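task queued by scheduler; priority normal; single chain, no ligands, no partner chains; default sampling; output format set to structure tokens
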Amino acid sequence: MKIEHIDNNENFDFGRTSADYAKYRDIYPPEFFSPIIDEGLCLKGQKILDLGTGTGVLPRALYKYGGNWVGVDISHSQIDEAIRLAGRDAMNIDFQCVSAEDMSFSDKTFDAVVACQCFTYFEHDRLAPILNRILKDRGKFAVMYLAWLPFEDEIAQKSEQLVLKYNPKWTGCNERRRYIDIPKTYGKFFNLDKQEIFDLDIEFDIESWNGRMKSCRGIGATLSQNEIEKWEKEHLDLLRCIAPKKFKIKHYAAYSILSKR
């Protein structure tokens, strides 16, 4: 995949890192989901669509609330991992390999649509009218994002600098707290109801933080296997020098909740 505003138009493929993604990207604490649960979304009696579902982290995390979930992703290997993990836990989730822009669900199928960590990858002029069509009247679209704060956390900063050493084209760096940018095209089809930002300190150990960084777009989704192995050796050496056995990384969470016009 190539997107002009991401990584200076460098190719990336999260399917290449699906095994690490499945193992290390399920990091969201319960507080991360509070805004959408408090909004009355993703609950029993609702049909919910998860865009860019990856390994199904979001529907698996919220499955206990009783919603009827569908997850879509463009990557076959990500969907394979999602199916495996849901099956392991006896979760009945419908995972489909299809791009968000090519979905063909019937009109007014879903009570809610969610997009977590993937909103920047979509062709919004194509997607916005599709979401309006497949959402029921008064349906909601929730966009969710979580990022570490490198200017406030030394371990995150050092890890990020090492990613840039191996992949200077990577643009997933230098995050600061910010509201999610909702392109103007959504204004034709949705009202912006609410935006929220709050901080989260997420616990890791050396293995899990290394895995989290390795599975990011700048490393596992882009570099050659040889480059990944060199980066990982250097990263583990770095962490053994600067990190305790367990530590917390400062993140911020951002939400935008839109309602169908």
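post-processing summary
- The longest strand covers residues 190-205.
- The helical segments are 18-24, 34-38, 57-62, 76-88, 124-134, 154-166, 206-214, 225-242.
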